[in-house]
Specification:
It contains five helices and eight strands; from the N terminus they run ββαααβββαβαββ. With 172 residues, it is an alpha+beta fold.
Amino acid sequence: MFIETERLILQPLAATDLDAQHALWSQEPVYRHITGKPMDRETVWLRLLRDIGHWQVFGFGTWSVRLKKTDQHIGVMGIFDYKRAIDPPLDAFETGWVFDSTFHGQGYASEALKAALVYADETLNLPKTQCAIAPENEASLKLALRHGYKPLRECLFHGEPTFILERLKPAV
């Protein structure tokens, strides 16, 4: 399932995205609020296989976000269920995103999230989605709030404080 926006193409992650994903997860501004450390190639490969498998199980998942003009991989955007060890567990599919730090602050994440939420609302007909964001990740919190997410609760995820936000599908 490909999604096209004004500047971007979102296409399902593939094995060929390994090098770009490894480069992405090696950037401190990317991993700082998520894993706290860079990911080695093996860990990135396993994560990539998980994301590819999500498409096989659910028919949707995480997209490679690419610049339309150059086909450059600049990040990922997804709708997924990773069965995170959060108590109580999430009760909806989750949205999540990471972008190459070179492209932060240029509106690409907002453009990709808007497209993913239209897909969630219109194609998947999901009644709601949730996202988990570290409290200090101000950029992602602002992005989520701008796109209709509301704070739901706080929890611990891998021992770290985490905000859970929720977005209800807009009424027609």
